[in-house]
Amino acid sequence: MTGWDIGLRRVKIVSGRFLEDLSQMPPSLSIIECHQDEVWEVPSGAEVIAFSEKTGVEMFAIGDHILGIQGHPEYTKDILCSLIERLLNNNCIEVIKIK
Questions:
Q1: Up-side HSE of residue 69: CA atoms within 13 Å toward CB?
Q2: Which residues contact 69 (CB under 8 A, 6 or more apart)?
Q3: Does the N terminus or the C terminus of the chain have fewer Cβ atoms within 10 A?
Q4: Helix (H) or strand (E) run with residue 15 in it
Q5: 96 Cβ partners below 8 Å, 6+ apart?
Q6: In this protein, which residues make up the domain named Glutamine amidotransferase (predicted)?
Q7: What DSSP line would sit under 43-93, residue for residue?
Q8: What are the φ and ψ backbone dihedral angles of 14, each rounded to 5 degrees?
Q9: What's this model's pTM, rounded to 2 decimal places?
């Protein structure tokens, strides 16, 4: 495990059985992440369809169905800020100042 992943993460899309023709898709998406857990390997028969610098399995599919998305495309900036505030107040995370 590599620790918390919080904020906006660029997720790179992978061509494969599920996404054969990427001509109509951007090469990457920006998705809000707020998680500590991480999927390390996909189930038997599944295909990784997206990854990021931090997480090797950002999205996976089995057949014609997307089954897993690590990030939260449904979150807004306000939801993310609220979650960060709650995590800070509960001492689950700490602010790290980068020089």
A1: 16
A2: 31, 58, 59
A3: C
A4: none
A5: none
A6: 21-77
A7: PTT-EEEEE-SS-S-SEEEETTEEEEESS-TT--HHHHHHHHHHHHHTTSS
A8: -110, 130
A9: 0.74
- For tokens 């295909």, name the residue: 47
CA distances from 29 to 11, 18, 26, 81 (A): 5, 17, 7, 20
8 Å CB contact between 48 and 42 = yes
Q: Which tokens in the block code for residue 34?
A: 């707020």
Residue 29 corresponds to which tokens in the numbers above? Answer: 């998406």
Torsion angle defined by CA atoms of residues 10, 96, 39 and 17, in that order, rounded to the nearest 10 degrees: 10
